[in-house]
Write a structure and sequence with these properties.
globular; 21 strands; alpha+beta; 21% strand; 5-stranded parallel sheet
Length: 514
């Protein structure tokens, strides 16, 4: 009996999730990953040499929406909790502004409200409770018809939600909505930062993104071994279901035969055929022609002015003094409008960047390593997505590092950087890892009321060709990319079993488990 075969180009979280879902349905699945290891943006980075060598996460560091992976593993007959060691964080993140102290947010709404009340006053504590309630309602309205489903049309979504569609606030920017709610401008800045989770500016992104506040309140987990361990667990689950994983296998082109995607040719010259092909790369790579002329029409390359945020990410092993770091800490620049004007309008690096640090040797609550030990950390600032057209000189890179360190010093944190134990990745480096992006890490920027509908569908117009990953529906981020893989897998299976030529709507089953 013929066993349908699928080739998945790219072993990021979207491709791994799709592979597990497809293999669980009995399909013959092969993942082709260009890099020496799977994981995509969930990458491991090494600094130093010999006994001083340290390995750490160099990509996503926040794990939310655990239910996505619970359901994914359950549908494959596996148990996610047995595959990955997780600790639920009580303290979500610590936020600092110059020398005004710091504000912690917690998984417990009451504790967060009390902390905000002590930091900003009782009125803003009440405002936060109202904000959290509204964020939960937006999430509730969008979870089933958007997050879990094949990409809806703008008209269909509007008709489905009816008058409730206005409750998701697509026509107000996040910054405007927050400014009308909170008295303290620091809270506007704090919650405005949620737009950067999707690579967008709070001054341009819709207020719909306040739903991220609800996602974090529903649970943030720390993964033992880092997020790279999550990628390895997904790989192990795939292999348990007989998925073939081939690394260091870059694809040169995808071939269409008889009007259907049928084969890939590797850079090595090897040619592989399959019944269907799924691409887990940034969709811009298709439109840029990086997978050959046969599939160039499957997705459009995103122009520079429409791209999401890029970043400069320093993976460090460094000694720190002063500020009490926790696992996730954010140090806000003084001028948020200038920061996003610089990145998105002027395509330059901010004068006073907001700095995020993931202190990877610390617990969520900030258990402190021995005083004489250097710590592993990932330090990130926002950057323009121009890595395919501009290379930072050593002088420019040092200037960005100096500005970042000045920001930390202003908040009371001193970081002693040993160049031998530091490895930066700039937009050019990210563009090399994820071609045709300019270093943009989130696909198309969510900078319009209905920008989410401009992302490519998981099913392309080319029969047999499907897309997964953070650049396509339903959007960026680890759980969203996993959802994209599940949706793409569901569409592929529906097309495989249906003889009808019309498009189907495929909805992922299961219930929300907070």
């Amino acid at each position: 009996m013929h066993k349908d075969s699928v080739l998945i180009v790219g072993g990021g979280v979207g491709g791994l999730s799709a592979a597990l879902a497809l293999a669980g349905q009995g399909l013959d699945v092969t993942i082709l990953e260009a890099q020496p290891e799977i994981g995509g943006k969930m990458r491991a980075v090494q600094v130093g040499q010999g006994d001083d060598q340290a390995t750490m996460d160099g990509g996503p560091t926040v794990f939310t929406m655990k239910w996505v992976f619970d359901e994914l593993f359950d549908e494959a007959g596996l148990n996610f909790d047995e595959a990955v060691a997780l600790t639920k964080a009580d303290l979500l993140a610590r936020h600092a502004w110059d020398d005004t102290g710091h504000l912690d947010l917690f998984a417990d709404l009451d504790r967060s409200a009390d902390a905000i009340g002590a930091f900003c006053g009782p009125q803003d504590a009440k405002n936060f409770r109202d904000f959290a309630k509204e964020a939960a309602e937006i999430y509730r309205l969008l979870e089933k018809p958007f997050l879990r489903s094949s990409k809806p049309s703008m008209l269909g979504m509007s008709m489905g939600l009816g008058t409730k569609g206005f409750a998701v606030k697509p026509f107000s920017t996040l910054w405007k909505s927050l400014s009308s709610r909170f008295r303290d401008p620091r809270l506007v800045q704090l919650f405005g930062r949620y737009s950067t989770y999707t690579g967008a500016s709070p001054f341009l992104a819709p207020a719909t993104l306040m739903l991220i506040a609800h996602v974090e309140l529903a649970g943030v987990w720390l993964v033992k071994g880092g997020m790279r361990a999550l990628a390895q667990s997904l790989k192990a689950a795939c292999q348990q279901k007989s998925v073939t994983v081939r690394t260091s296998c870059p694809v040169d082109r995808i071939e269409v035969e008889g009007g259907r995607a049928r084969a890939v040719t590797l850079k090595s010259g090897e040619r592989l055929t399959a019944d269907a092909i799924m691409v887990n790369a940034d969709a811009s790579a298709l439109g840029a022609g990086l997978f050959g002329p046969d599939v160039i029409s499957a997705a459009q390359a995103v122009p520079t002015e429409k791209r999401s945020l890029a970043a400069i990410a320093w993976t460090l092993k460094a000694k720190i003094q002063g500020f009490p770091l926790v696992h996730h800490s954010v140090f806000f620049g003084r001028d948020y409008p200038e920061e996003f004007e610089a990145v998105f309008r002027q395509h330059r690096y901010p004068n006073d960047p907001t700095v995020y640090i993931c202190a990877q040797d610390r617990s969520a609550e900030g258990t402190t390593p021995p005083a004489d030990d250097a710590e592993r950390m990932l330090m990130v600032i926002n950057a323009p997505p121009v890595g395919d057209g501009h290379t930072l000189s050593d002088k420019e890179m040092q200037a960005c590092l100096d500005r970042s360190m000045n920001r930390l010093q202003a908040c009371g944190l001193s970081v002693t950087v040993d160049p031998a134990m530091s490895r930066p990745t700039d937009p050019r480096g990210f563009n090399q890892l994820f071609p045709a992006t300019g270093g943009a890490l989130y696909g198309r920027a969510n900078h319009a009321p209905f920008a989410s509908f401009q992302r490519p569908d998981n099913r392309t117009a080319i029969p047999g060709l499907y897309l997964a990953g953070g650049s396509v529906h339903p959007g960026p981020g680890v759980p969203m990319a996993a959802l994209s893989g599940r949706i793409a897998a569901a569409q592929l299976i529906a097309d495989r079993t249906s003889m009808r030529p019309s498009r189907q709507t495929v909805t992922i089953g299961g219930t929300l488990t907070a």
